[in-house]
Structures are given as C-alpha cells and as structure tokens.
Fold this protein.
Amino acid sequence: MKIVDLFFYFCLCIVACVLFFVFNSNKELHFSIPTFDLTQTKKHDIYEKEQLLLDDIIIKSIDIEQIDDMRYLVSYLGINNENEQKIYGFLFYPNKYSTIQNGKWQNISTNSRNKSDTHILFTKDMFKKATKQNMYLFNTPFFKRDDSTIYFFFNTKMFSKTDYSKAYIFSTSLHDIVEYLEDIDSNKKDKLLNNGKSHIFKLYEKLELNTPANINAFLSYKPIIAYTNKNDKNFILPFYIKMIDDISFFGIFDSKFKLQDTIKTNNISYISNPLITPIQEDYRLYDADNNILDSHSCIAIYNNLQKNKESKLYYQMCRIGNGTLNLDELNISDNIIGNNFNVTTFRSYLLLVYTDKDNVTLNLAIWNGNDFIKLKEIDRNKNGKIISPNIVSNGDYAYIAYAKETQSKINIITINETYIKNLISSNEINKYMQ
C-alpha cells in the first residue's frame, strides 16, 4: 500500500504540474491586456467633442495656437458681468488615442485633465500701462508661436464712434505663459494682474504701415513665415482697410516687424477678412487640367462683403519665396457660401471650416484640387450664432475650436485622418477628388 500511495501522489503531482502549465499559458484569455500595435489592428475614425466650461462670460471671439505636442493655448475675448472686455486663456490638453483588441479607440493620455485653469491674459489697464494710451475696445486678438516666443496680436479701436484703429504686438516666452497658466500660486497671479510692468506680456511693436490707411487698417489674422535665407525670415500679415468697401492686402514685415512691402490682392474692393496659411511641402495641388502645381506653398482666402450678393468664398493660390509673396488669380468658389472661414493642411488634405451665411451652422469642407467641397455639417446652434471657428492640426489629429452664442463654453472637436476618409466615402465625393 505504501508503494501504491507513493505512486498515486507522484501521478497527482504530474497532473497538477500539467494543469498549472496549461492554465498559466492561457491566462491572458481571462485577464486580457490592451495592445496598441496599430499594425495589427484596423484603423478606426475618431470624432470626439469636448465642451470646456467657462465662467459666466459673453464670448466674442476665440483663438487656438499650438504650444507643443501636448498643449494648446486657447484664448478668447470675453465680456464679464461688469461689461468689461478682457482677454482670457487656458491650456488645452488633447486626448491621445490608440486601439485595444476589440478595435475600439481608447484615450491613453497620461494627463487626466483636459484643460488648465482659466486666467486673465490681458486687459485695457495693462494696455494703458504699457503704451500710456487709452483704448475703447479690443478687436480680433490672436496668438502666434514662433520658436520659443508667443506673439500676441490685436487691433485696438481707439474711439467709440469711429473706425480709427491701431494694431499692436505684445510678446512673451513659451516658458512664461505655460508657467503662468499652470502655476497654482494665486498670490503670484494677483501680483502679475495688478502690476502691468511685471505682467508676462511685454509691448513688442506697434505695426506701422506708413500710409494714410494706417489709421483704419485692421489686422485680420495671424502671420505666416517667409524665410529670406536659412538664418533670417519675414512675416506676412493679412490686413483689410475699412472704407466704403473693404480692401484687402498683405504686409511683408521683417523679423522685427518693420514693414518691408505691401502686396495687394487686386483691385476688387468687396473682399475682406483675408487669411493666409502655408501648404505642407508634401501636399500637391492641381490646376483645372490636372497638372501638378508643386510651386504653390500657400493659399489665401477671403470673405465676400458685396451688398446684395451671396457670401461666397474667394481664394487665391500663392507662392512664398525669398521672403516675399506672389499671388495667383483670384477665384470664386462654386460650392462654398458662408462666413468665418478658417483653413489648415492636415496630412494630405486641405481642410476648411466655416459657418453658413446666417452663422448658425458649423461646416467642414475639403479641397478637391480645384475648389472646396462641403463634407459635413458638424454642429448647429439653435439659439444663436456660431462664434470664431478655428482649425489646427498636429500629427495624427486635427482640432476644431469654436463657441456658441449664449453659451459660456468652448467646444473642441478632435478628428483623425480616417474620419476624413470615411466622410469622403460616405458622401460619394471621391470621384471629385483629384
């Protein structure tokens, strides 16, 4: 019996080892671990809308500018309960995505917050302390990053009943604005806000056009960079002059924002709010005969303000070389009617966001080689207007930022390239793409 018992226990141990080995080799079936190997999974589209709540503020305009791969500066011109006009801002932390085994997208961002606290960036009092001048209101404030510097551009309306305006540039470092918005020391912020001389933004330059138009020329959007050589660069800034009919032009400024030249769009006097954006080097544009136009490196777009006419999109292809700008013929879109245009290149696509002529719908369009084509209405405001749609892109994602009238919140929509491809397929416009 003793030998039989020993043999029985020996066999039992062998069976237990085998069972343990089998269980251990298959334990991932019971405790699955997410995998982020995109080469082994189908790419899915991303569309995520985030609503970033603000204090009780009336939003007049917004802007978004990339700080780095993980942070974006979102700023807005707001009016508080005391009817005071101020520039506010916060850092937006985009979600990051990858796929898990079932093919669904998952946020893998290490930062659990989607924004920093909101803080005042600039006020009329700060302007007065820096310039020794009074102002009536801000107009069209926006930010532009250049290397390690953030430039703050805005128009000032100097008097209540005239269009007399001046354009100013203030600046700060990327480090200082990030520290200011992410620093939790409220006492330090109070000190900065109450002492204009120690505030993070310093007066950099007043933009001078050296023409009579300088008194009513409005800076309409942020600049693009035109390199004169590998060590020096110019800035190209879009302006429009408010007269009986608006006239658009571009100012060429050196690296210190001193005027070098002005480039007129043409003699048409009813296009306004010019915007110019670079086209990525790997993006090819085509003419009407399907010939590649490799030399084009930017596109300029405009609003049509001609009375009793449909508000169509006007656009010009352009080239940047030797620090200056060359514009092609002005074109009228056959497909896009609306306002508040904003454009960016995203991967191999040139994307346009805009509102309809009544400013109640937010729409996404794509360049097909000859013109823009509407892809989708992506939002609607049933109780007012859509405010200041912006689109920026970085790597795998594009971000659409905007606000809605009567709401104290900023909306940011995240999309990826697959989302665009699926929209093209679902709209059956692939046959119109060059």
User: Anything to note?
Assistant: Residues 277 and 332 are 18 Å apart (CA to CA).
